[in-house]
Each structure stands twice: as structure tokens, then as C-alpha cells.
Amino acid sequence: MAFHTDMSSYTSINQDFEPLMLKLRELLNYFFSLSVPVKLLYIFAFYTVFFTLIYIPIRFVYRAYFDPLSKIPGPKWVLISGSYNKLYWDVLPGKGYGELHSYILKLHQQYGHIVRTGPRWVAINDIELYQEVYKVNSRFAKNPHFYNHPIGNESVAELVNIHEAADRRAAYNPYFSKQAIRKFEEPIQEKVSYFLDRIEAVGDKIPLDRAFRCLMADVITTYSYGKNADALSHPEFHPDVLLAFSVALGSLGFQNTFPITVTCLEWLLDHGLPRFLLPRPVKNTVRFVEECRDIIMALKGKYSKGEKDVHTIFAETFEDDEKSGRKALTYRQLQQDAVLIFSAGADTTAHGLTTLVYHLVQNPHIEEMLLNELKGIMPSPTSEITETVADGLPILTAVIKETLRISQGIPSCLPRDVPAGGVDFLGYHLPATTTLQFPAFTYHNSPDIFPDPTKWDPTRWLVGDTREMEKYWIPFGRGSRICLGLNLAWSELLVTSARLVRRFEMGFAEDFKHEDMEWKAVFIPVTKGRLSIWVKRREE
Ligand code: HEM
């Protein structure tokens, strides 16, 4: 069979393209003749136009209509860019900053129990599914993009590998059991006594939120490192160490989005960058991290010489554990855990106590109920109360539970990833690596479970069957990654609030403004301003 080719058509196509090719060649010649900066400018302009007019719109259409998650309801704007979402909620100052939890609550009210909140993010409002995801030995691991801050990505809280995390926690768990904390009661009582004396001496315009932070910092450092940070003796309750910690906390979103900046800073410091060139907050933060590291390394040195007289929760991490096969922690892991335990132990509990006093002052009838309960056990305003006794008091327990519900514990989303094989939730298939969000804020604000949910009302815990409320009460998280310091925090909350309320009448100071108690979620809740109060010792 013969093939007949019509060569004349090829010739005509070539002729059609010739002017175009010539134009293109001219353009290229022109481009190569430009200086380097102008060339770079052109490249930048080309990419900008390509990304905004072609890549982003095509990707958006795919995400909105063809992606496996596209059937899940939710607003469309969140699909434009995951990176932009991160900037909007965690980095850029503005309406969104620290408010993702409340946005998610609104989305549930609008779209239902499951809602798409980003290209790969799905938020869920269903307590049975929460329990499935946050259970002991769950297959849903912590999300590696969220739990990734250069200052802590090797710490126990940011370990995303389930087995590694279980191993590390096994080293710390014995120090955080109820019995272990009870053995430590004396130093807690001592520090609470000093705290009460200090605020009594100040009397008026006490920045109580800061004083609570100092108290918690002193407890956690004594408990963890066997070394008191001595924050409470600071005249304004604002020592450098806590200032540094606030800076580190405030920069978490930035660190997470631009980790390279911290890596560069570390590299520069290791290679001789003079400290005086750093702005004061950064300098303080660097010093804070280094101090935690030095304390922990000194302890390790002592332990390796057999001097084990100092109590430290790090004892099991200094050497290999032959029985379980666990390796000793590296220098960096130890440093990061030292920083983490300090930070996890100070601000969370302090924010809870701040919220407690803020509401108690506004609800004298609850204060009266609590005081009467306490008077039955603490005969004088300066009486102490043990954790064991305090733990059985119904009104005190109700006040703390309601406070942690309102103050949220950690309001951030604490995201978990769908494991290999995907899952079917609420009628939708969620493929592996979908990131699930279950902020406590959603559950603590369920109106069917907690009627009038924004109202601080401890009496709701005192009537009828509270089992359903307990299920929805998740300030410490649940499952294998539940708060490591839960028993310590509970003990601090009980003892501090009981002794504070028994000893003092309290009121807002003249300079206090309610708007100062508005908070944003910077991982944990951070209030806009100070809880400024006066205290007066109650009569015997
Ligand atoms: C009222 C006080 C506290 C609250 C509401 C609270 C809340 C939480 C929550 C919700 C988590 C889970 C985070 C996640 O899933 O990523 C957590 C983890 C953790 N908490 Fe607390 N916490 C408190 C006090 C403390 C204290 C006093 C310590 C002291 C050691 C502590 C140490 C930790 C650690 C190390 C983790 C990480 C555990 C892991 O990832 O396996 N917390 N906390």
C-alpha cells in the first residue's frame, strides 16, 4: 500500500509559523541582552503572572470541584491557598489572627458537623469521632506541619511518630502520676504561701495574671529541674525569663511558617554573631533557651557522676534504658523538652487561674458558695488545704471545671492526620493525609450540652447527671497524647484557688478594663492586657 503525503500543506504551516518564530527569537535575544537585575525582574513578573492568572485559578477549580474532599461543605475562599490560610490565622496581625477556633465554630453552625476549612483541612464536630481520633493508641498522628516549630520540633509535644512519642512519654510518665505529684505537695504549698504573701504586700493594682505565671514558673522549674526560677520575687511579677517566654510564644506562628529564619539565627549565633546586635526580646529568648539547656546539661552531668540527690523529671532520659531499648535523649532533644516543660507548665495553668478569678469577682453568689464550702475545712483565712482534701470538694471542683471549659485549656486545633487507607466519617471518604481539626472550643461551646455556653456557670456541674458534659469537657485533650502535666495542673489549680479565695476578698482595681481579658489563641490563650485586682485579707 502506498502512502501519499501532501507536502504542500506542511510547507504552508511552516510558512505560517515563521513570523512567530522570528518574533520569539527576537524576544529571546532582547531578553539575553538585558542586565542581570532587569532579567531577574522580568522572571519575577513572569512567575507572578503565571501563578496568579494560571496556576492558582486552575488549582482552585481542582480543589473546589474535583478533589476527593470537594463534596465536603464549606466556604470556597479557604481553598485558594493553604499557605495564605496559615498566614491569615497565625502570622499577619489582623482580624483572623488567633481566631481560627471561633471561625470554625461559626462554620459548624452554618454548614453542619463536618466542614472543609482549607485545601487539606477538615473540621469535625462529633464527640464520638473526637473520641475515636484522640484515643489511647490512636492511629491518627499529630500533623507534622502544625507541630513544627524550630524551637520545639524535637520536644515530646511535637513528636509526630506515634511510637517515638509513646517511648518518650514512658520516660516522663512516672513523674506525673497522681502519687508522684502528691509526694511533691510540700514545695507547691510553700510556693503558694509565698505567692499569697507577695500579692497581699502589693495590695492594689496587682497584675494577677502575671503573678500566677510567676507562681507556675516557680513550681514547674522546681519540680522539673530541681531549681527555682524565683520569678515570684520580681517586684512587678515580670522577670526577663517570662518576658522571653512571651516573645517565644508570640513568635510561634511566624516560626512555624518561616522556620528557616530560626535556623539561620541559630547558625549565625553558632558562628559568632555578637549578641548585642540582636533586639532585646530576641536576645532574652535566646538566653532563656540557653539557660534551660545549661540547667539540664548540668543535671545530666551530675547524674552521670552518680550524684542523684536532685529531683528531676529528666532522670530517665539521661541514659539508655536497656529494658525497653529506649535511647538516652540527645543534647537537642533535652534542650527542647526543657523549654517545652517550662512553657507547657506555666502559662496554661496561669491562664486558667486568671479566668477563674475574673469570673469569681463578677459572681459574688458563687464566691459566697465556694467560701462557705472552704470555711468548713479551712478554719482560718491562712489555713492550708491539701490536694487530697481539696479534690473532693464539689463546689471547688465545679468552679475549676467550668473555668477550664470557658478558658479552653488549649483552644488551637491540635490537628491529627488521617492514616494510610483513609477513613469514612459522617458520610464522606477522607483520604490519607487529610488533616482533621477538633478544637476544644467547638465542644466546650455546644449549646445542647452546655446551655447558654458563653456564660460562666459552675452550678451546671452541681445538678443532675454530668456524664454527658464530662464527655464534651476536653481542656487537657484525651488519649495517648493527653496533657502530660494534667495531675500537676489539677493540683495547682485546686490548692491555689482554694487558698486564695479563703484568704482574700478580691475586686477589680481602678485601672482594670474588661476588654483586657479578651484573648487570642497563640497556641494557648493570651489575653489582651492585665487582670488588675486588689486584695484584702478576710476577717478571722
Ligand atoms: C490547666 C493547665 C493545662 C492545660 C489546660 C493543658 C492542656 C494540654 C493539652 C490540651 C494538651 C494536648 C496538646 C496536643 O494534643 O497537642 C497538652 C499537652 C501537654 N501538656 Fe499540658 N496542659 C496544662 C498544664 C500542663 C502542665 C502543668 C504541664 C507540665 C509538665 C503540661 C505539659 C504538657 C506536655 C509535655 C504536653 C505534650 C504531651 C504530648 O504531646 O504527648 N501541661 N496539655
TrEMBL record:
<keyword id="KW-0503">Monooxygenase</keyword>
<dbReference type="GO" id="GO:0005506">
    <property type="term" value="F:iron ion binding"/>
</dbReference>
<keyword id="KW-0408">Iron</keyword>
<keyword id="KW-0560">Oxidoreductase</keyword>
<dbReference type="Pfam" id="PF00067">
    <property type="entry name" value="p450"/>
</dbReference>
<protein>
    <recommendedName>
        <fullName>Cytochrome P450</fullName>
    </recommendedName>
</protein>
<dbReference type="GO" id="GO:0020037">
    <property type="term" value="F:heme binding"/>
</dbReference>
<feature type="transmembrane region" description="Helical">
    <location>
        <begin position="40"/>
        <end position="62"/>
    </location>
</feature>
<keyword id="KW-0812">Transmembrane</keyword>
<keyword id="KW-0349">Heme</keyword>
<dbReference type="InterPro" id="IPR036396">
    <property type="entry name" value="Cyt_P450_sf"/>
</dbReference>
<comment type="similarity">
    <text>Belongs to the cytochrome P450 family.</text>
</comment>
<keyword id="KW-0479">Metal-binding</keyword>
<dbReference type="InterPro" id="IPR001128">
    <property type="entry name" value="Cyt_P450"/>
</dbReference>
<keyword id="KW-1133">Transmembrane helix</keyword>
<dbReference type="GO" id="GO:0016705">
    <property type="term" value="F:oxidoreductase activity, acting on paired donors, with incorporation or reduction of molecular oxygen"/>
</dbReference>
<keyword id="KW-0472">Membrane</keyword>
<feature type="binding site" description="axial binding residue">
    <location>
        <position position="483"/>
    </location>
    <ligand>
        <name>heme</name>
    </ligand>
</feature>
<dbReference type="GO" id="GO:0004497">
    <property type="term" value="F:monooxygenase activity"/>
</dbReference>
<dbReference type="InterPro" id="IPR002401">
    <property type="entry name" value="Cyt_P450_E_grp-I"/>
</dbReference>
<dbReference type="InterPro" id="IPR050121">
    <property type="entry name" value="Cytochrome_P450_monoxygenase"/>
</dbReference>
<dbReference type="InterPro" id="IPR017972">
    <property type="entry name" value="Cyt_P450_CS"/>
</dbReference>
